[in-house]
């Protein structure tokens, strides 16, 4: 199973607004962005992405749930993150943050922290309490972005403690398994 993270109850009242690098603008995405967003997600490594998938995911996104960063000089859409209504057994009424991607030539500027923060904010405006994401162990830039914003690991399978320890070691990030477990329980109690 992919690594799981949730937006903790301790941050429900906090608005996180990372600074956007100069020369870029943040905006919501729309159906006309289909080709641009598909191109960027393919460039970010999601080779399976295509226009049909864009339509399918846009239908699952909440209104104003697709956030993109545009490069002002070129007009290119260079980064995106999606807010998708996607409840699961372990995530009642869950909103999933997904499809985070940045064109490789525009990484290293923290652009995805801006789109991810916008997605969390949008979910909160929409009344979502259960906000989650799934990711893969090698996706270190993404995981560091999530940890820095305040997301916490949700250890839903026994092997995940060891996997998080390995990830944190690679990132030089404190691995507070007990603190996280307490925060997860407090958050779930409010779902
Ligand atoms: C995830 C992604 C959008 C992040 O791009 P970005 O917003 O430009 O992020 P950055 O490159 O600024 O990296 C974020 C942080 O990770 C760090 N980082 C980057 N590569 C790293 C690595 N290999 N090991 C450890 N840390 C790394 C950066 O130094 C940065 O830390 P800082 O904020 O303390 O400086 C981009 O890497 C991407 O498109 N990846 C492929 C798709 C993907 O993995 N999506 C996530 C799916 S869950």
Largest sheet features: 7 strands, mixed
- Distance separating the two termini: 22 Å
Number of helices: 6
Q: Order of strands across the biggest sheet?
A: 2-3-4-5-6-1-7
Please, what is the average pLDDT?
97
CATH homologous superfamily identity: Gcn5-related N-acetyltransferase (GNAT)
Number of strands: 7
**Do you know the CATH topology?**
Aminopeptidase
Structural domains: how many? 1
Radius of gyration from the alpha-carbon trace, in angstroms? 16 Å
Q: Helix coverage percent of residues?
A: 25-40%
Bound molecules: coenzyme A
**By helix and strand content, what is the structural category?**
alpha+beta
- Shape call: globular
CATH architecture: 3-Layer(aba) Sandwich
Highest-level CATH class: Alpha Beta
What fraction strand?
15-25%
Regions with little confidence, pLDDT below 50 for 5+ residues: none
Strand and helix order: EEHHEEEHEHEHH
Polypeptide structure, described:
- Helix content is 36%, strand content 23%.
- With 191 residues, the protein is an alpha+beta fold.
- It has one domain: Gcn5-related N-acetyltransferase (GNAT) (Aminopeptidase, 3-Layer(aba) Sandwich), CATH 3.40.630.30.
- The protein has a 7-stranded mixed sheet with strand order 2-3-4-5-6-1-7, sandwiched between helices.
- Strand 5 (95-102), helix 3 and strand 6 form a beta-alpha-beta unit.
- The protein is globular and about 45 Å long.
- The two termini are 22 Å apart.
- 35% of the residues are buried.
- Bound molecules: coenzyme A.
- Residues 44-45, 100-102, 107-113, 135, 139-142, 144-145, 148, 171 line the site of coenzyme A (COA).
């Amino acid at each position: 199973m992919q690594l799981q993270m949730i937006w903790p109850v301790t941050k429900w009242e906090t608005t996180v607004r990372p600074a956007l690098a100069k020369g870029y603008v943040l905006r919501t995405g729309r159906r006309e962005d289909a080709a641009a967003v598909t191109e960027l997600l393919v460039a970010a490594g999601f080779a399976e992405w295509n226009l049909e998938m864009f339509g399918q995911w846009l239908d699952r996104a909440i209104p104003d749930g697709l956030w993109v960063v545009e490069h002002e000089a070129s007009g290119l859409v260079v980064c995106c993150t999606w807010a998708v209504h996607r409840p699961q057994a372990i995530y009642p009424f869950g909103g999933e943050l997904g499809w985070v991607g940045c064109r490789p030539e525009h990484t290293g500027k923290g652009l995805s922290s801006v789109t991810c923060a916008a997605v969390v904010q949008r979910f909160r405006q929409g009344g979502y309490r259960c906000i989650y994401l799934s990711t893969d162990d090698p996706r270190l830039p993404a995981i560091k972005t999530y940890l820095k914003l305040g997301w916490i690991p949700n250890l839903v399978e026994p092997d995940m403690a060891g996997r998080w320890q390995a990830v944190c070691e690679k990132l030089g990030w404190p691995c507070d398994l007990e603190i996280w477990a307490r925060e997860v329980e407090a958050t779930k109690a409010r779902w």
